[in-house]
């Protein structure tokens, strides 16, 4: 029996763009329309995906424009989290794997406003390492891990600066989003499964390479590379030497 994988939040966040590309590719390609019609793709299936994309994209009523300070703080945190999460993780994995696991359990870099929450979560966990609350048995190693991070460019002053940026993003009281985070995850899961279903149908229809690329199910070939057709629920990647599978 096939193993059903649980998608990461990063994978889910990429799904709306991939579903949109699939729908647009379907609309533009006669070959895709003919092949998928034979598989049962109809107006109801199209409307199912489109309605969920629209739900995710709704703007809250009374939404206000964020002021310059908030915009700049969000942008800086969004730029900071990706390379620095990786740097901190790799640094600690060598000598402090337990601390690395604690800091990054179910935590990864993301985009936009989600980066603010991700950085705040990391800072909160770093505070726990420093305070030792609930980690008496590992406190000595926790403090040593923090000392290493300080040498690598993450001293207390840098963490304080990041905390101030997080606080700045909360300076404007904006209306809550139309879709709660729980509802958003549910919709993303629905779209993930929809894309997995119809992506598999498109592949089994033996559509040409150009059509699969148009649907977002393959990447265009680069120099000295071959086109890659992937599981439709996973972002296509063009592997290089040593790339993960």
Structure description:
- By secondary structure, the chain is mostly helical.
- The chain folds into 2 domains: 9-59 and 180-229, no CATH class; 68-169.
- The chain has 10 helices and 2 strands; from the N terminus they run ααααααααααββ.
- Strands 1-2 form a two-stranded antiparallel ribbon.
- Helix 1 crosses helix 9 (181-204) and helix 4 packs antiparallel against helix 8 (156-169).
- Residues 224-245 have low confidence and may be disordered.
Counting helices, strands and paired strands, the structural category is: mainly alpha
Mean pLDDT: 84
- Biggest β-sheet, characterized? 2 strands, antiparallel
- How many angstroms separate the termini? 21 Å
| Total domain count | 2
> Over all CA atoms, what is the radius of gyration?
22 Å
Percent of sequence in beta strands: under 5%
Tally of individual helices:
10
Major β-sheet strand ordering: 1-2
Tell me the total number of β-strands.
2
- Which geometry do the CA atoms define? elongated
Low-confidence stretches: 224-245
Give the SSE string: HHHHHHHHHHEE
The helix content is 55-70%
């Amino acid at each position: 029996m096939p193993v059903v994988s649980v998608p990461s939040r990063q994978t889910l966040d990429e799904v709306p763009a991939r579903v949109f590309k699939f729908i647009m590719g379907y609309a533009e390609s006669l070959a895709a329309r003919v092949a998928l019609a034979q598989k049962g793709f109809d107006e109801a299936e199209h409307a199912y995906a489109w309605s969920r994309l629209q739900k995710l994209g709704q703007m809250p009523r009374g939404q206000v424009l964020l002021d310059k300070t908030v915009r700049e703080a969000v942008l800086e945190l969004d730029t900071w989290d990706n390379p620095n999460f990786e740097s901190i993780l790799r640094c600690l994995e060598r000598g402090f794997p337990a601390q690395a696991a604690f800091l990054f359990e179910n935590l990864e870099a993301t985009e936009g406003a989600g980066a603010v929450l991700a950085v705040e979560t990391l800072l909160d966990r770093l505070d726990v390492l420093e305070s030792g609350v609930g980690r008496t048995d590992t406190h000595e190693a926790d403090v040593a891990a923090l000392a290493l991070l300080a040498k690598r460019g993450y001293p207390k002053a840098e963490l304080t600066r990041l905390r101030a940026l997080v606080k700045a993003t909360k300076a404007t009281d904006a209306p809550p989003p139309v879709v709660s985070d729980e509802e958003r995850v549910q919709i993303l899961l629905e779209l993930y499964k929809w894309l997995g279903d119809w992506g598999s149908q498109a592949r089994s229809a033996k559509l040409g390479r150009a059509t699969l690329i148009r649907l977002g199910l393959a990447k265009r070939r680069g120099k000295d590379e071959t086109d890659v057709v992937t599981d439709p629920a996973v972002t296509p990647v063009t592997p290089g030497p040593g790339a993960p599978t």
